[in-house]
Specification:
There is one protein chain. The chain has about 200 residues and is of the alpha+beta class. The protein folds into 2 domains: about 70 residues, no CATH class; about 80 residues, no CATH class. It is about 30% helix and about 20% strand. The strands form 2 sheets. Strands 1-4-5-6 form a 4-stranded antiparallel beta sheet, with no helix packed on it. α2 runs antiparallel to α3 and α3 crosses α4. The longest helix has 14 residues.
Length: about 200
């Protein structure tokens, strides 16, 4: 009498984690520091996120609305073109509006906001960082925020976290050091000032 073999699962079990998240103004959700797009119509709504070592999925009211390969790069974005809004629908938060708002704080703030927006593949990916920076003015005051943005620009760091760190550690009160001048290496064809005396 032979025994019938039991059929195992079609695919190996993959551990999944779940969390609930609000869709940000840039229509992305945060999964362990990486931002994944969902349809822009869900901005401001709550979605359920299911993520494994290989996949990130977003569900709204039980329907899957997005699926992405999992990426471990913190602070980066994974964006599906079809999730993006048509440009005319983005009048609420446009690059010009954010830069104009930043100009009310000062030139350095506007320059930093502009640099963040245009350093991204899609300007919308910089909205959250820029809004966060502008809100720091409410907590620390515009003059401190402007000084912090000046320092961030001088050390070439383009992120909300960097500006927040500068303010938290009161580095905005420290003088911005000029970039060091690198002396030219000696060369046979370069005449020093002593040649002319």
């Amino acid at each position: 009498m032979h025994q019938q073999a039991l059929a195992g699962p079609a695919a190996p079990y993959e551990f999944a984690q779940w969390k609930r998240a609000k869709v940000h103004v840039d229509y992305h959700v945060d999964v362990e520091g990486h931002y994944y797009s969902v349809p822009h119509t869900l901005v401001g709504r709550k979605v359920d996120l299911r993520y494994t070592v290989t996949t990130v999925e977003a569900f709204h009211q039980g329907q899957r609305v997005a699926s992405h390969p999992r990426v471990d790069l913190r602070g980066r974005h994974t964006t599906v073109e079809s999730h993006m809004p048509p440009h005319h629908r983005h009048a609420k938060w446009s690059p010009q509006r954010l830069i104009g708002w930043a100009e009310k704080t000062g030139a350095a703030t506007a320059q930093l906001v502009s640099a963040i927006l245009y350093s991204r593949r899609h300007v919308e990916q910089g909205y959250r960082s820029c809004l966060g920076i502008l809100r720091l003015g409410e907590r620390y005051g515009n003059s401190r925020l402007e000084a912090a943005c000046q320092r961030a620009l001088s050390i070439k760091v383009l992120s909300y976290r960097s500006v927040e760190s500068i303010l938290t550690h009161s580095l905005d009160a420290q003088p911005v050091l000029p970039e060091p001048v690198t002396p030219r290496p000696p060369h046979d064809n370069l005449r020093g000032p002593e040649y002319f005396h």
